[in-house]
Amino acid sequence: MDTLEQYRQIICTILTEHTKIPYSYGDIQHETIFDKEQDRYLVMILGREPVPELSVTATRRVHGCLIHIDIIDGKIWIQRDGTEDGLATEFVKAGISKDRIVLGFRSEELRKDSEFAIA
Known about the structure:
5-stranded mixed beta sheet; 36% strand; elongated; alpha+beta; TATA-Binding Protein
């Protein structure tokens, strides 16, 4: 299996595992979006969550991007990481070297001080 296909498989596996983690409150669902042609991978959240300051039964709509990963020029770019422990750590545990992972959600100046790729 070539490196690009291996990256795609690892990303899809890790993101799918994140969809199995339930929210502690509210009726929140996860949706994965895997675009292997453009190499864009998302986990979206949607549903309703309680608004206790309004009333016991009040809810608000939740809709947004929890995780956004791109593969750009052979590197994994973490564009959005709404996870508790961090996706970069999970990618490293899955066998991807740190110099192939870009923390895209950080500025280039901050990326220089990390142990991961700058770009």
